[in-house]
Amino acid sequence: MARLFLILGLAAVAMALPYDDDFFPPKYEKTALGESIDRSTMKLLKAAYDVASDKNVVSSPLGLMMLLSLFNSGAGPATKEEITKFLGGTDFKQTSESYEELSNRFASLNPEALTVANKIYVSNQYKLQDAFSRTANKYHSEVDNLDFSKPADAAAVINKWADEKTHGNIKEPVSADMLSPDVAAALFNVIYFKGHWHVPFKAAETREKDFHANDGTVVQKPTMHLERSLYYAESPELKARLVELPYKERGFRMVVVLPDEVDGLPALLEKAATRGLLSDVFRLRPAGAEVYLDLPKFDIKSKLDFNVILPKIGVSQLFDEAAPGIVNTPVKVSKAFQEAFIKVDEEGAEAGAFTGAIAVATSLIINPTPPIQFIVDRPFLYLIVFEDKILFAGTNTK
Question: Which domains does the chain have, with CATH numbers?
Answer without folding.
Answer: 3-196+299-344 (3.30.497.10), 203-297+369-396 (2.30.39.10)
